[in-house]
Amino acid sequence: MAEPVFERLALVGAGLIGSSIARIARARGDIARVVVVNARTEKTLGRIAELGIADVCEIDPVRAVEGADCVVLCAPVGAYASLAAAIGPHLAPGAIITDVGSTKQSVIRDVGPHVPQGVHFVPGHPMAGTEFSGPDAGFSELFEGRWCLLTPPVGTDAAAVQRIKAFWERCGATVSIMDPEHHDRVVAIVSHLPHLIAFTICGTADDLADETRKEVLQFAASGFRDFTRIAASDPVMWRDVFLNNREALLEMLARFTEDAQAMARAVRWGDASYIEDKVMRGRKIRQALIDINQA
Amino acid sequence: MAEPVFERLALVGAGLIGSSIARIARARGDIARVVVVNARTEKTLGRIAELGIADVCEIDPVRAVEGADCVVLCAPVGAYASLAAAIGPHLAPGAIITDVGSTKQSVIRDVGPHVPQGVHFVPGHPMAGTEFSGPDAGFSELFEGRWCLLTPPVGTDAAAVQRIKAFWERCGATVSIMDPEHHDRVVAIVSHLPHLIAFTICGTADDLADETRKEVLQFAASGFRDFTRIAASDPVMWRDVFLNNREALLEMLARFTEDAQAMARAVRWGDASYIEDKVMRGRKIRQALIDINQA
Ligand SMILES: NC(=O)c1ccc[n+]([C@@H]2O[C@H](COP(=O)([O-])OP(=O)(O)OC[C@H]3O[C@@H](n4cnc5c(N)ncnc54)[C@H](OP(=O)(O)O)[C@@H]3O)[C@@H](O)[C@H]2O)c1
Ligand SMILES: NC(=O)c1ccc[n+]([C@@H]2O[C@H](COP(=O)([O-])OP(=O)(O)OC[C@H]3O[C@@H](n4cnc5c(N)ncnc54)[C@H](OP(=O)(O)O)[C@@H]3O)[C@@H](O)[C@H]2O)c1
């Protein structure tokens, strides 16, 4: 077996993402010699212990990170500022702090100031997830074949970035380095806006059902079913994502709205070829995704 | 085996839906003694013959419907008016004409006037589909456990409605009778608007990729992947659906846009509890669908 990437890995947060990392580290053995798991509640931590996917379970985040050469923040991004303020002073010299948060400019803003001299900060975002949350939702194939985007600030230690890259590759992901601002725009359109739309349309449909006092959701055809699946996601995580990627999300929603209005205009005025073109384009994009194995 | 519902069933159109019906009728034997299949092109009809799922393949729709006691229109709804004009005069006295079109007020408008005295017209819509089209996309489980909505105009012969109900039940569907206007509003929100949104957001993302000359679609996270799947659907079918359910679709898009703007405002002003409430609601709706087996 290859040398473990880390001696002591501390996961701060143990839901879908954190517990998936713990499962992988446990199963592989070449990620860290010791895996420390922290969660906010005894309930989650107890479940991690029952699952047997941590070497050490520690409810105090400060104690959890002590002596770790790698700390991964796996909580909702809205919790990062206070978590970083608490653990920052206790990070070991030479350690790496990284994260899995879905937004990156906000994470750099919230965590950056609490990272002491001599500790390396490598923000990251595995582009993998499901609509489920909590320690039982995790599974060791979660990152298999998925992208993990790293957004190290200019001047970040190259060796630290390499170790985080090796870590994610052992988790099954393909790593790409990206500028944080570009990251936030890309995820705003491919992930955050689709979620906002899904949450919204479920509400629109439910209001209609209330209004007509008739079944609506009952007839969820294939189109709608997929939207409700997306909409089943965790409220706290998504609240935090929306609030922490505000500018990019609002920009993408504005672009989408313009495009939807153009489609509405084509429908109203019977512009058949405009509609056909747009649908055809969706088809091409789908085909392109299939070709690059992202479908 | 039960008596077949029909003596001679004619399917006008043999893509995803038409060929699925043909497959079921072939496999079961209690739907019709003879299954006649018509398609627009020799190519599709030849494929139906190769698949061996029709007793008679007939390229001329007029000849296809001659002597049939049930005719099912399975073409895109934009083709219904001219198809009905052509076959109307050749429908057998006492026959039933029905359809599978995704819109119902337009179908009544386009087909109704061509239905001769003594022929029964029972508009229908199986709420089942995939993003694939053509004769090879069909499969005999397509309607299993799905709804089929019938929207017979007031005064339609009750026995004819009963036979169409029996037909769909043997196809595996659960039948519900609905007012055509209500039908069009329900499908506008649960199916047509989600498709319009999916087509649109794929274009918005692709424009962004063009603009930044950078990868965007490559990072399709789970949210976006589902949208591209929906967006892979047939351009002609969806063009026809949008143009033939214009009023309801535009109304639902307007409602959705208002709701999305309210969400945007909450994001802009940091209204965390509003966002959380909306996401929580999505979750509840998903749970409700799971409870009624529509998820
Ligand atoms: N889900 C996805 O699809 C996805 C994909 C990529 C990235 N991400 C990112 O991954 C991170 C975790 O998401 P997840 O899906 O794994 O969430 P999750 O399943 O809800 O788990 C969140 C974890 O964080 C802990 N936590 C919650 N609030 C906390 C706080 N205020 N202080 C300290 N710990 C707290 C929770 O502890 P308790 O259980 O004890 O409350 C739980 O262990 C988020 O930043 C998210 O943006 C998610
Ligand atoms: N797909 C869904 O998800 C879904 C769900 C419920 C209801 N529907 C409704 O079902 C109907 C058929 O949809 P589908 O998905 O089965 O479509 P499809 O796979 O594209 O098949 C359409 C069929 O109609 C024939 N056709 C096309 N244009 C025609 C024309 N102008 N005149 C005569 N025949 C023509 C085609 O013949 P050729 O192949 O020879 O061109 C083909 O056999 C539509 O009205 C649609 O609204 C669809």
TrEMBL record, chains A, B:
<dbReference type="GO" id="GO:0006571">
    <property type="term" value="P:tyrosine biosynthetic process"/>
</dbReference>
<keyword id="KW-0520">NAD</keyword>
<dbReference type="InterPro" id="IPR046826">
    <property type="entry name" value="PDH_N"/>
</dbReference>
<dbReference type="InterPro" id="IPR008927">
    <property type="entry name" value="6-PGluconate_DH-like_C_sf"/>
</dbReference>
<dbReference type="InterPro" id="IPR050812">
    <property type="entry name" value="Preph/Arog_dehydrog"/>
</dbReference>
<dbReference type="GO" id="GO:0004665">
    <property type="term" value="F:prephenate dehydrogenase (NADP+) activity"/>
</dbReference>
<dbReference type="Pfam" id="PF02153">
    <property type="entry name" value="PDH_N"/>
</dbReference>
<dbReference type="InterPro" id="IPR036291">
    <property type="entry name" value="NAD(P)-bd_dom_sf"/>
</dbReference>
<comment type="similarity">
    <text>Belongs to the prephenate/arogenate dehydrogenase family.</text>
</comment>
<feature type="domain" description="Prephenate/arogenate dehydrogenase">
    <location>
        <begin position="7"/>
        <end position="295"/>
    </location>
</feature>
<dbReference type="InterPro" id="IPR003099">
    <property type="entry name" value="Prephen_DH"/>
</dbReference>
<dbReference type="InterPro" id="IPR046825">
    <property type="entry name" value="PDH_C"/>
</dbReference>
<dbReference type="Pfam" id="PF20463">
    <property type="entry name" value="PDH_C"/>
</dbReference>
<keyword id="KW-0057">Aromatic amino acid biosynthesis</keyword>
<comment type="pathway">
    <text>Amino-acid biosynthesis; L-tyrosine biosynthesis; (4-hydroxyphenyl)pyruvate from prephenate (NAD(+) route): step 1/1.</text>
</comment>
<keyword id="KW-0028">Amino-acid biosynthesis</keyword>
<protein>
    <recommendedName>
        <fullName>prephenate dehydrogenase</fullName>
        <ecNumber>1.3.1.12</ecNumber>
    </recommendedName>
</protein>
<keyword id="KW-0560">Oxidoreductase</keyword>
<keyword id="KW-0827">Tyrosine biosynthesis</keyword>
<dbReference type="GO" id="GO:0008977">
    <property type="term" value="F:prephenate dehydrogenase (NAD+) activity"/>
</dbReference>
<dbReference type="GO" id="GO:0070403">
    <property type="term" value="F:NAD+ binding"/>
</dbReference>
